[in-house]
Each structure stands twice: as C-alpha cells, then as structure tokens.
Fold this sequence. Notes:
Layout: H1 2-10, H2 14-22, E1 30-40, E2 44-51, E3 57-62, H3 68-71
Antiparallel strand pairs: 1-2, 2-3
Amino acid sequence: MASKAREKETAPSAPEAVASVVAAPVTPTVTASVEVYPIREPYSYASIVRDSVTNQLKYLVVEPVLSEDEKK
C-alpha cells in the first residue's frame, strides 16, 4: 500500500498535466511532421513532429484560423 500512496504523491492531476502540454512553445527547429490527425474536425487537429535539434517527438495542437464566413 505504500507504493500507492507514493504514486498519488508524484502523479500530477489532470489539469496540471494539460497545462504543461498547452504551455509548450512551438520552436522553429521542428522540421519533420510524423503524423497529423483530427481531434474535432474541422476545429482542431493534433500534429506529431520531430525536433531536428533534439531529435525528440513533440505533440502540437493545431487550430485553423476561421474565415470571415465561419466567424458569423
């Protein structure tokens, strides 16, 4: 039971985890798109990209800009 208590202490709550993902900056070093898929088409998409400097995969949320007709 001690391991469950330790797990609860170290695991972030859902809002904290989401805030850290949303706050991630988009850097110009991202060059290779691995995958793009809709989250809630046509309003939001997810993009998995590879950072060319660190070689890490990054998860980005893409929200297309609405046209004037769509804003009405």
